[in-house]
Amino acid sequence: MDLDLNHQVACSVCHKGNDTTGDKSLAHTGLIAQPSHPETMAESCGKCHQEQVSNIHQAGHFTLKNEVNMVRRSFGATTDLQSLTDIPESALPKDPLALADDLLRRRCLRCHLYYQGDNYPAVSHGTGCAACHLDFQNGRLTSHSFLARPGDRQCLSCHYGNRVGFDYYGRFEHDLNVEYRTPYTTKEEHFRPYGVEYHQLAADIHQQRGLTCTDCHSGRELMTKDSATSRPSCAGCHDQVELAKQLPQGVKMSNGKHVFLAGKEQKEHPLPLMTDPAHTTINEKISCQACHAQWTFNDFGKYFLRSDLDDFDAWDRLTTQGSSEVSAILENNTDPARPEMEPAMIDKIHFRKQNGLWYKGFGVRRWETIFLAKDQNGTITTVRPLLDYSLSWIDAEGRVKFDNQTSRADNRGMQPYTPHTTGKAGLLYMQRLREFHLQEHSRKD
Description:
The protein has helices spanning 11-15, 24-27, 50-56, 60-63, 65-74, 96-108, 130-133, 152-156, 205-208, 213-216, 219-223, 227-230, 234-238, 240-245, 278-281, 289-292, 324-333, 429-444, and strands at 136-137, 140-141, 171-173, 198-200, 251-254, 257-262, 267-270, 298-307, 344-346, 353-355, 357-366, 371-374, 380-385, 389-394, 400-406, 414-416.
């Protein structure tokens, strides 16, 4: 068992149990298998890291309340929840909100600190503190050496599949239909570390230069309730005026120039400054990515069907679903030589099996067009369709309980989003802005 220098302690310090006996059954009395799990992290990790454990319970990465409430409000919720664990159980949904709650609990929320992640090689992880601070591969813990700063592998175990993080590495998930996933011929089962094959597009310039996620996203942002005020800004590192006020974490002066120190090696990267006239001649509030994003996630039309039927033939070309649970059942039940598995999924919060599979499909999947809109502060920013959901449910008797229940979000479900696909603005940024202004004027007319 590999231990880092800060954790040279006996197993029982964290895992409890009885270390005075050689009898296995007695030794495992009172054993805590997952000491860093949210329900036990206070008495294990909290003994030495009280402040961090106390703060994490308020962090967005822990509660996921922003994401949860955004979806629930678009289906009629009038009050916000404080945590994903507060989502009501809805085995037999009575209205669209309850149907959305069932979708969240059983299909969507596969990446949170109470759950070990999907059963794919690159996305399974530990629970609680271990999700970020221990290394897992192929569903197994590789080492007991704790990571002071999580690596990108830990971040991508949740931030994959056309969510922020996947774009940082230039990855865009293939469509789910079998004809859109390549290679078409292989003697082996397709190797899908993230559940679905992906296109390799241009990675973010910061990733190309060797910066990791935590070089920009600090522990204070990720592990406290101050995430909104602790987020990094482009200007913080690239604007001469801002740098003159205060050097952000990781930036220093070297030979009269600003450099950024990245990674464990603290490699020096020269910081390019905002010297192009476009930064001062355009008299509008514009986010940096409105001009500098190279591409974005534009998956229009997210269709989710809960089916309690035991009829699977219609899904033989859609067995790859981006959910290991759904895919395993479909691959099994579309093979007549195998005994059929029941159409049921585990609740990812209470871990109880419930009837019905949540199938997923898309209207169209694209990455080419950068869409712009004004946010609540009047800043022109990048947006993507995040709330364009359509939910349906067929019960075990074949009765359609809900048909195409769409979210109430305005403007095709478009929401502000920061593409992690930064590059040079190039020749098209002005065209992008002109098209936005034309659309703004046409709406006013």
